[in-house]
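>> received
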Amino acid sequence: MKELITTEQAARAILMLAIALPIAGLLIGGIAGAVRRQTARGAALGLVCGHSGPAIYVMWRVYNGVIGRFGLDSVKGLLVNLALFLTVGLLIGLAAGAVWRRKTAPVSGARNELHPNVRR
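>> returned
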């Protein structure tokens, strides 16, 4: 039975995404930032988000390396991939959470917008 999509086709598609997503993120982020009058900040955020493409490519290569080493139907290979993907996901989540908290944290000594005479 012939495969619908070969491993080489999938690898080529993921490589194209790894190249295209940072460029697209930079452009889309720059445009979105320009609308908000924060072009540099938008472009930087878009570029960071766009680097999900190279991250996906690296994880694809790691997955294939583990499968190549332990086999497709190996429980050990499954557990190694599970541990790697959980670790990467946890690290990305922790970093995103830290950035989000830093971005939304109240400024020390800032005035309350509803009550300008009240300090936080």
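>> The radius of gyration is 21 Å.
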